[in-house]
Write a structure and sequence with these properties.
The protein is mostly helical. The protein is 63% helix and 0% strand.
Amino acid sequence: MLAWDYKQEVENQVGVIDNETAMEMLANYKIREAMAAGEFDNLPGHGKPLDMDKLGEDVATKIMRNSGYKPAWADKKKKLDSERGAVISTLRSCMQEIEARAGACAAPMSLELVRTNSNWQLKAPEIEEAIKAYNKKVTDYNLAMPAQLHMHMLSLEAAFARL
């Protein structure tokens, strides 16, 4: 038995204990119980000073990452990044086809010039629909995330500029 007794402390409290206080006391009890059982003895970095430079990162985020936890939004962001890359890749391959058909002596391609190309006019609805679907997913993602985690929408002009 521990020198500190959770039940005894609860009995010693004057008045009614609210849920938050009871949870805090229980958490402290569980921590002390684990310490007494030696469960914290072999943790990485045990006995070493904290590197204060590395504490600039959100401590909770670092703990979760080191324990293998991955928040659901991280997977959503990864999928959106992949989808953005796919849209830009589709646009790039379309541009390469247009440039190949135009020949080596053609002037540098601008978005306005590309829009007059018949090959572009065949593929444009598919690309524009992909951008629209991507932007809808980004909007849904952004509505669920704090501002610092927001993603940017994709426009045809911005995608073309990345080529």
